[in-house]
Specification:
The structure holds two protein chains of two kinds. Chain A is mostly helical. Chain A has a domain of about 160 residues: MetI-like (MetI-like fold, Orthogonal Bundle). Chain A is built from eight helices and no strands. In chain B, about 75% of the residues lie in helices and about 0% in strands. Chain B contains ten helices and no strands. In chain B, helix 1 packs antiparallel against helix 2, helix 3 packs across helix 5 and helix 5 packs antiparallel against helix 8. The longest helix of chain B has about 35 residues. Chain B is flat. The chains are: A mainly alpha, B mainly alpha. Chain A: Part of the ABC transporter complex GltIJKL involved in glutamate and aspartate uptake. Probably responsible for the translocation of the substrate across the membrane. Chain A: Pfam families: BPD_transp_1 (PF00528). Chain A: This is Glutamate/aspartate import permease protein GltK. Chain A: The complex is composed of two ATP-binding proteins (GltL), two transmembrane proteins (GltJ and GltK) and a solute-binding protein (GltI).
């Protein structure tokens, strides 16, 4: 069964797999996670603002994004981003943006909906007395959020935010549908070129498995430390 | 925006010659639903089993359950899809592999198996949480009544646990439904794949994706409504 395996093809493609593919995957994950967390926090604050004009659109946005398949959202933005670019720059025709930009926009906006749910729970978990105390000593809304609520919410929610980032890391493999060369895309290209699908896909699975298990073990260790501080 | 909207495109015949574009999307919808339901049967039964394994006193059973969950949760769904579709037929004994590859609708069966095993790991986590949140006294009361472990699970723990986890199970069901779109990479002609081919044939990008979006939103709405109805129906009288 494993007799005609050729792991030489994996070895010889390592520089391409990691130098091109994994660098792409990690860059996309890091940028989309940072953007998603910032945007998600803003959405969470909108939902908790108590102002219907802000809370309602935020709620609709989150529920909308959460009921669509990511693959469909990737397609949507792949075709929509050029038009958004045209509208924003006032150009006469849809501007061409790279597939990477379109993927980055997609993942940032899509994951923001999920990060916002985490941040909303985090903000709500801070006792009401803290907001009251901050207002009593004369802090503005911005100051209360920046110096009292958000630092604690971030710290308490850090394990969940990181776990969601691991999910995002796995989800980035879906850029395959717009033919981008992430880690899986690179593995897939080598697999097709050399006719070595079995070896390449098994190797890709093993790499994802090792990275995700290591990362979630680290998150669990962090969670224990955060729990002690609380 | 200089884009030519044409909402009547849905009633124009598709180049496949079997009906209009609307028919094409509807056929995609039926594949999406069939895949989601079939894989959910696997996910629910296997997931319950794995979840129960993780709560049993036996160390060995716990380890099997944990390994399963870690394995299926830490590999991206798309990679799992490729493993089932391209790798499994190759490493099976010769005649089995050939039989698998020549199976009609093989992408449908592959998608069902793959999603079933993938979602089972998520269902297992919910079932485990559900059982663990029940007061410890319930398991003890079961034992005190002289029920066997199997009977305690069957008549005491599981009926309660499923009621507790119905809301998260609903969102896992919806996730499973949305995940069927990943199967377009192995050639399953489900809803997203159909919207994509409609866009390629007709160049009406936004109409076809809007239609798919509306359909997905509609399904979510129906599932959430049914689930909350179910929740009130199966609630134990007197518990809230």
């Amino acid at each position: 069964m494993f007799t005609d395996f050729d792991f030489g093809v994996v070895l010889s493609s390592l520089p391409y797999l990691f130098g091109t593919g994994m660098v792409f995957t990690l860059t996309l994950t890091a940028l989309a996670a940072s953007g998603g967390i910032i945007l998600g926090t803003i959405i969470a604050m909108m939902r908790l603002s108590g102002i219907t004009a802000l809370a309602l659109p935020a709620k609709i946005y989150v529920n909308f994004m959460r009921s669509l398949p990511l693959v469909l959202v990737i397609f949507w933005f792949y075709f929509l981003v050029p038009y958004i670019g045209q509208w924003m720059t006032g150009a006469s025709r849809p501007i061409s943006v790279g597939a990477f930009t379109s993927a980055l926009v997609t993942f940032t906006l899509f994951e923001a909906a999920f990060f916002s749910e985490i941040m909303r729970a985090g903000i709500q978990a801070i006792p009401k007395g803290q907001t009251a105390a901050a207002q009593a000593i004369g802090l503005t809304y911005g100051q209360t959020m920046r110096t009292v609520i958000l630092p604690q919410a971030f710290r308490n929610m850090l394990p969940l935010l990181l776990t969601q980032t691991i999910v995002l890391f796995q989800d980035t493999s879906l850029v395959y549908v717009i033919s981008l060369t992430d880690f899986l895309g690179a593995a897939s290209k080598v697999a097709q070129r050399d006719g070595r699908l079995v070896e390449m896909y098994l190797f890709a699975a093993a790499v994802y498995l090792v990275i995700c298990i290591t990362a979630s073990t680290l998150v669990r260790r962090l969670q224990r430390r955060v729990a002690i501080i609380r | 925006m200089n884009y030519n909207w044409n909402w009547r495109i849905f009633f124009e015949p598709s180049p496949e010659g079997t009906g209009t574009y609307a028919d094409m999307l509807l056929s995609g919808l039926s594949w999406t639903i069939a895949t989601a339901l079939c894989s959910w049967i696997i996910a629910f039964s296997l997931g319950s089993l794995i979840g129960v394994l993780r709560t049993l006193p036996s160390r060995g059973a716990q380890r099997v359950g944990t390994t399963y969950v870690e394995l299926f949760r830490n590999i991206p769904l798309l990679v799992q899809m490729f493993l089932w579709f391209y790798v499994v037929p190759e490493i099976l004994p010769g005649s089995w592999g050939t039989w698998l590859k020549q199976l009609p609708n093989s992408s449908f069966y592959t998608a069902v198996i793959c999603l079933g095993f993938f979602t089972a790991s998520r269902v297992a986590e919910q079932v485990r949480t559900g059982i663990e949140t029940l007061p410890r006294g319930q398991r003890m009361a079961g034992t005190a009544l002289g029920l066997t472990t199997w009977q305690t699970y069957r008549y005491v723990l599981l009926p309660n646990a499923y009621r507790v986890i119905l809301p998260p199970l609903t969102s896992e069901f919806l996730n499973n439904l949305k995940n069927t779109s990943v199967a377009l990479t192995i050639g399953l002609l489900e809803l997203t794949a159909r919207a994509r081919s409609m866009q390629e044939f007709s160049s009406q990008v936004f109409e076809s994706f809007t239609a798919a979006t509306v359909i997905y939103l509609g399904i979510s709405l129906i599932v959430v409504t049914v689930s909350s109805k179910l929740e009130t129906r199966i609630a134990v009288p007197g518990s809230r």
